[in-house]
Structures are given as structure tokens and as C-alpha cells.
From TrEMBL:
Binding-site list for acetyl-CoA: 386-387, 405, 423, 440
Gene from which this protein is expressed: glmU
Pfam families: Hexapep (PF00132), Hexapep_2 (PF14602), NTP_transferase (PF00483)
Biological process terms in GO annotation: cell morphogenesis; cell wall organization; lipid A biosynthetic process; peptidoglycan biosynthetic process; regulation of cell shape; UDP-N-acetylglucosamine biosynthetic process
Enzyme class: transferase
NCBIfam families to which the protein is assigned, alphabetical: glmU (TIGR01173), PRK14354.1 (NF010934)
EC number: 2.7.7.23, 2.3.1.157
Native organism: Lentilactobacillus curieae
Protein name: Bifunctional protein GlmU
Length: 458
């Protein structure tokens, strides 16, 4: 049976990244580079996907889980040696094997599909995916003869002056006849500038065996970009970001300044939402329809339902329901749930709390470990005092209550519905329904005292 297989090369350390993190685990728009590659490969429907791991094998396996098989390359002796490690899994199969690198995050499933189709139509032993660039430095070059037929690939470090001038590059993606690939790999050596077993040498070997070598030229060089250092990482991120932002705009989202809007790959956004400059949407956030995300807001791993307004605020691991609003300069910390029509104004911090529909927390307030019912008014500068130095405690406030400004609610505390807390109170005893609680020093007025003050004015 003719099988369709892919080998993803992800064993290299990535020395040029100068990082403790393995190269293929660096992120582009929220997803690791190797995950980007695997996600696109998965869409082509393979019989086998084998990821070659070495440096950081455990971390890469943890990242990709059971979506791929693994082959371990103990020592990183080159890309040809890396593919060899997949021989135990793939060696006996008939069919086509695509090889891709884990450091080329921009490739699309469509390009892989096109490569397979082209390869089949050419009946070739190998089809190299190539592209053209005015800045080929660092890439392997495609050497063609006077008839334009591909002879071999020469690596940057082994290339002559003339070869370095070639602008057609090896993208590092190939479709091989599986049997031809593994038999040719047995003949490669490491006699080159880097002392490595190059996968690219397989081309010349197949050529010498009289087999057909094809090259499929893709139009978009940027899609084939390999990330070897941080400069390339930032370029790849820019390109990916543009793609993501354009897809959202085509789906009806207004992005005022797409060059300065940072949206991770897994984010969903409803139509008619408006996103101002500097906004960052991260992890697995979901944004509803007709929301307004004001400048420099950041939303991490959170869900916003429809018609939510966020003005220059930070939202983490939380949920905001229909018509609620927050900001400017406010912060939802993890595990907060904000009901429909809730208003959270400026300088409000909410942590691990539930606030039900139409409650208002207008200004300068900390709500921690609390459950607030519906239609509550929380005045300015209220502190939900949740921590006794050792443990966190909970405060519950019932529907339709009023919490006066500058109050401290010392948890554990239960404030019943329809109750009233007078401004400036420090409350540490439960409050019953329809009660007013007042806990502050009575005011004393001293008649005429102003005139006794040393700085008094007539
Ligand atoms: C490689 C190609 C080059 C091509 C470029 C495209 C070779 C010899 N060169 O160069 O022609 O233009 O990709 O981006 O193939 N890896 C292993 N084990 C190893 C060595 C590398 O798994 O022993 C993995 C790396 O993790 C990486 C991929 O193979 O994901 C490519 O290796 P890298 O060192 O980045 O090759 P380039 O120098 O970019
Ligand atoms: Ca590379």
C-alpha cells in the first residue's frame, strides 16, 4: 500500500538562538514553532507522522503529546542522520515521505498538499520545495545545470562564490519516494564544512542513481522562512501576525492598526468587534460580537461574551458576560466571573470573585475572594479584606445592597441582600437583611477652634 508520511526534524539545539529553551519550542503568535508545523501537517492527513527529537526530547514530547510518533536522535550529527532515526518506523513502507523542519513555522497545509500533488505528477524520486529570495544567505542553494535541471543542493558553508550568488534556495521541505530516501541515506557521509551528515546530499546520490529529481518552486519565500535566530523569530512573528489579523478582518472584525495588534493563533473573535492599537489577545481567549477593546488592553486566556467593553485593562483567566464593561486601568485576576451589564470602572482589581448582573463597582476598589449578587452598588475605595496573613477568607454580599465608599469588609463576612453599609465603615460582623451597618468614630465639632490655630487667618 502506498502510504503518506511526514518526518519533522526537531532534534537540534538551536545554538544560534542563544537560549536555554530548545529552538523548536520558541513561540510564534502563542504556539511553538514545531506545533505550527505539526498542525499544518495534520491537515494533509498522513498515515504516519514521525518527529525526530534529541535536544529537549522530553519537552518536545510533552508539547506535542500523542499527535505524532517519535524517533530519538541521540547525537545531532546532521539533518540526514536525523531522518535516518525514523528508519525503524518508516523504512519498510511504500509511498511518499515528506521531510520538514520544526523551525519553519509559516508553511501552510496548502503548500504541503501542492508539493505532494506535484511530486506525484512528476513521478520523481524526490521533489524539493524551493523558493527565490534576494537574501539567500544561510540557506542551501539549488544548483541546476545549463538545461535548468537540478543537480544537487549546496549548503551555504560549502558553496563557492558562484554558488553563493544563486537565489533559488532549499526550503528544507521535500517529498521523497520513501524507499529511495532510506536507501540513499545509507550512502551519505560527513565530509563537508560542518562535518555533518546532510540530508541535502541525498539529492546528488539519487541523481547519480539516474533517478528523477524534481523541484517545486513556491511563490512566497516568506512562507518558507527558517528561524535560526531571534531576528528571524521576530520576522516570522510579524508575518504570522499579519496573516492572523487579516483573517479576522475578513471575518468582520475591525482592527484599527493591524501592525500594532497582537493576536495569538488560537483566538476567536466575533464580528463587529473593534480593536484599538496595542491590544494583545493571548492563549485561548474567545471574544464575542460587537465588543470594544480599547488601546493597550491585554486579554489572556479569557472569555468575553457579546457587547463587552474593555478600556485599557488586563484580564486573565476570567469571564465577562454580555454588556459588561471594565476600565480604564483595571485588572481581572484569575477565576473572576463578571455578570451581564456589570460596570467595573477605573482602578478596580478583582480576584477569584463572582459579580452578578448589573452590579456596579465604579472606582478604586479591590474585590478579592468575594461573591457579589445582583444590582449592588459598591462605592469608591472599598476594600474586600480577604487575607489575615495566613489564609484567604470569603465575603458574600446579597442582591440590591449598597456598600458605602471607603469601607473595609473584613472576611469571613456575610452581608445580606437589601442591606446598607455606611461610608467609611470597617465591617467585621455579618449584616442582616434591611439593616444599615455603620462602624466609624462619631464626628465631634469644636466650635471656634479654628481661631486658636497658629496659622489661622481672619
Ligand atoms: C537546512 C538545510 C538547508 C535549508 C534550510 C532551510 C541541511 C543540511 N540544510 O539548513 O539546505 O536551506 O534548512 O531552512 O539540511 N536537526 C536535527 N538534527 C540534527 C540537525 C538538525 O533534528 O542533527 C533539525 C533542527 O532541529 C531543525 C532542522 O533539522 O529543525 C534543520 O536544521 P538546521 O540546523 O536549522 O539547518 P539549516 O542550517 O537551517
Ligand atoms: Ca534552520
Amino acid at each position: 500500500m502506498a502510504t503518506k508520511n511526514t518526518v519533522i526534524l526537531a532534534a537540534g539545539k538551536g545554538t544560534r538562538m542563544k537560549s536555554k529553551l530548545y529552538k523548536v519550542l520558541h513561540r510564534v503568535c502563542g504556539r511553538t514553532m514545531v506545533d505550527h508545523v505539526l498542525t499544518q501537517v495534520e491537515q494533509v492527513k498522513m498515515d504516519n507522522i514521525v518527529t525526530v527529537v534529541g535536544h529537549g526530547a522530553d519537552a518536545v514530547e510533552k508539547e506535542l503529546g500523542s499527535r505524532t510518533k517519535y524517533a530519538v536522535q541521540e547525537e545531532q550529527l546532521g539533518t540526514g542522520h536525523a531522518v535516518m532515526q525514523a528508519e525503524d518506523i518508516l523504512g519498510n513502507l511504500d509511498g511518499i515521505t515528506m521531510v520538514v523542519s520544526g523551525d519553519t513555522p509559516l508553511f501552510t497545509a496548502q503548500t504541503f498538499d501542492n508539493l505532494f500533488e506535484y511530486h506525484k505528477s512528476k513521478k520523481a524520486a524526490v521533489t524539493i520545495l524551493t523558493s527565490h529570495t534576494d537574501e539567500p544567505t544561510g540557506y542551501g542553494r539549488i544548483v541546476r545545470n545549463s538545461l535548468g535541471i537540478v543537480e544537487r543542493i549546496v549548503e551555504q558553508k560549502d558553496a563557492s562564490k558562484e554558488e553563493q550568488a544563486i537565489t533559488e534556495i532549499n526550503t528544507g521541505v521535500y517529498a521523497f519516494d520513501n524507499q529511495a530516501l532510506f536507501s540513499a541515506l545509507h550512502s551519505i557521509n560527513n565530509e563537508n564544512a560542518q562535518g555533518e551528515y546532510y540530508l541535502t546530499d541525498v539529492i546528488e546520490i539519487l541523481k547519480k542513481q539516474g533517478k528523477t529529481i524534481a523541484a517545486f518552486q513556491m511563490d512566497d519565500f516568506y512562507e518558507s522562512m527558517g528561524v535560526n535566530d531571534r531576528v528571524a523569530l521576530s520576522k516570522a512573528t510579524k508575518i504570522m501576525q499579519r496573516r492572523i489579523n487579516e483573517a479576522h478582518m475578513k471575518d468582520g472584525v475591525t482592527i484599527v492598526d493591524p501592525d500594532n495588534t497582537y493576536i495569538d493563533v488560537d483566538i476567536k473573535i466575533g464580528a463587529d468587534t473593534v480593536i484599538e492599537p496595542g491590544v494583545q489577545l493571548k492563549n485561548h481567549s474567545v471574544i464575542g460580537e460587537n465588543c470594544y477593546l480599547g488601546a493597550h488592553s491585554e486579554i489572556r486566556n479569557s472569555t468575553l461574551h457579546d457587547n463587552v467593553t474593555v478600556t485599557s485593562s488586563l484580564i486573565e483567566d476570567s469571564e465577562m458576560f454580555d454588556g459588561s464593561d471594565i476600565g480604564p486601568n483595571s485588572h481581572l485576576r484569575p477565576e473572576s466571573s463578571i455578570g451581564k451589564g456589570v460596570h467595573l470602572g477605573n482602578f478596580v482589581e478583582v480576584k477569584k470573585s463572582t459579580i452578578e448582573d448589573n452590579t456596579k463597582v465604579g472606582h478604586l476598589t479591590y474585590v478579592g475572594n468575594a461573591k457579589l449578587g445582583k444590582n449592588i452598588n459598591v462605592g469608591c475605595g472599598v476594600v474586600f479584606v480577604n487575607y489575615d496573613g495566613a489564609k484567604k477568607h470569603e465575603t458574600v454580599v446579597g442582591d440590591d445592597s449598597f456598600i458605602g465608599s471607603n469601607s473595609n469588609l473584613i472576611a469571613p463576612l456575610n452581608v445580606a441582600d437589601h442591606s446598607f453599609i455606611a461610608a467609611g465603615s470597617t465591617i467585621n460582623k455579618d449584616v442582616e437583611r434591611y439593616d444599615m451597618a455603620i462602624a466609624r468614630e462619631r464626628q465631634t465639632n469644636k466650635p471656634g477652634y479654628f481661631k486658636k490655630l497658629p496659622y489661622q487667618k481672619d
